[in-house]
Design a protein that fits this description.
The protein has a domain at 82-207: Alpha-Beta Complex (Transposase Inhibitor Protein From Tn5, Chain A, domain 1). Helices cover 37% and strands 26% of the residues. It has 7 helices and 12 strands. The strands form 4 sheets. A 6-stranded mixed beta sheet has the order 5-6-12-11-10-9, sandwiched between helices. The chain is globular. The protein starts with a helix and ends in a 12-residue tail after the last helix.
Length: 277
C-alpha cells in the first residue's frame, strides 16, 4: 500500500500564493516576542494519514497544536498565549483555550460566521459595516482596527477587523481572540506582528538550511534531518544575539566558520556551539 505519493509521505497543503501544492508538511512551534528573533521549539515532520503508525500517529493541525502545547506545559515552558494561523480549527481552539485557560489569537477566514448584535453574518459581511474610516488608526503599524464582541456555539470572543494598505489599497484580514478585555488592541497587534517572525525563519529553514532537501523515505530519517536544521538555526541565532543588527546571511556565514573551527580543533570558543536556547 505504500507507493507513490503515499510512500513519500507528502500531502497537499496551502501555500502563500493561495495555491494548493504537493509537499512535505511540518509542525512548527516557536517562542516569540515583539521585536526579538523567534526561538524555534520544534519543527516536526507531519505524518500523512496513509503513513500513520503507532509510533507516528496522524494528527490534524488542531490536534497537533494541542499535543505540542501540552508537551510544553508539562516541560514548564511559560507562555502568555497562543498565536495560530488560519488552518487551526477555530471552535476546537476556542474550546481548548477555555479548558486550559490559555488565550489564543488566531487568523480567521472571511467566511467564518458569527453572531453580532443578534444577527448571524460572515466576517466579510461584518467588515462592510466597519470600513477603514470607522476603525481606529494604530500609527505604529499603519493599520486601522475595530474590535468587536461576537459569539459562536462554543461561546463568545472578540474579533479584530484589521485594515491595511497594500499597493495603496485598503485590504482587510481578521483575527479572533480569547484574550481578556484588559489586553489592549495594540498588545494583540504587537503579538501578531511577533508571530510573523515564524514565517521569516520558515523561509530561512527552506532557502538556507535545506529543510526540504532530505530525499530519505523513512519518517525517522526526516525527523533526524529536521532536528539538524533546527540545531543549525540555533547556531545562527546565537551569533545574531552576540552581534545585534547582524543580518541572517552574515550570521549564517559566521556560524559556519565557528562550526568549521570546532571540527578542526575540537575547541569551543564560547561554550557549546549548538545552544538549546
Amino acid at each position: 500500500p505504500h507507493a507513490g505519493r503515499t510512500m513519500e509521505g507528502v500531502n497537499y497543503h496551502y501555500s502563500g500564493q493561495a495555491q494548493t501544492r504537493l509537499g512535505h508538511q511540518f509542525t512548527s512551534a516557536a517562542l516569540v516576542r515583539f521585536g526579538e528573533d523567534p526561538v524555534p521549539l520544534l519543527e516536526r515532520f507531519k505524518v500523512s494519514q496513509p503513513l500513520e503508525t503507532t509510533c507516528y500517529p496522524y494528527r490534524t493541525a488542531t490536534q497537533e497544536m494541542i499535543h505540542v502545547v501540552q508537551d510544553c506545559l508539562a516541560a514548564g515552558v511559560p507562555m502568555a498565549g497562543l498565536l495560530l494561523d488560519g488552518e487551526f480549527g477555530r471552535d476546537a481552539a476556542v474550546t481548548f483555550s477555555r479548558e486550559h485557560q490559555i488565550p489564543v489569537l488566531i487568523r480567521a477566514k472571511a467566511t467564518m460566521t458569527v453572531q453580532f448584535e443578534g444577527e448571524s453574518l460572515t466576517l466579510g459581511a461584518l467588515s462592510r459595516q466597519f470600513p477603514p474610516e470607522r476603525c481606529h488608526l494604530y500609527a505604529e503599524f499603519g493599520w486601522r482596527v475595530r474590535r468587536l464582541s461576537v459569539a459562536r456555539e462554543v461561546g463568545g470572543f472578540d474579533v479584530l477587523i484589521v485594515w491595511r494598505k497594500v499597493h495603496g489599497e485598503w485590504t482587510r484580514f481578521f483575527l479572533f481572540s480569547t484574550f481578556g478585555g484588559d489586553v489592549t488592541v495594540r498588545s494583540l497587534l504587537r503579538a501578531w506582528k511577533a508571530r510573523w517572525g515564524i514565517e521569516v525563519i520558515h523561509r530561512f529553514f527552506k532557502q538556507n538550511l535545506g529543510l526540504g532537501r532530505c530525499h530519505c523515505r523513512t519518517i525517522q530519517a526526516q525527523e533526524n534531518w529536521v532536528w539538524c536544521v533546527v540545531e543549525a538555526f540555533h547556531a545562527v541565532l546565537r551569533v545574531r544575539r552576540e552581534g545585534p543588527g547582524m543580518t541572517w546571511r552574515a550570521a549564517q556565514r559566521q556560524a559556519a566558520q565557528n562550526a568549521e573551527q570546532y571540527v578542526l580543533t575540537g575547541l569551543e570558543q564560547d561554550g557549546p556551539l549548538l545552544d538549546a536556547a
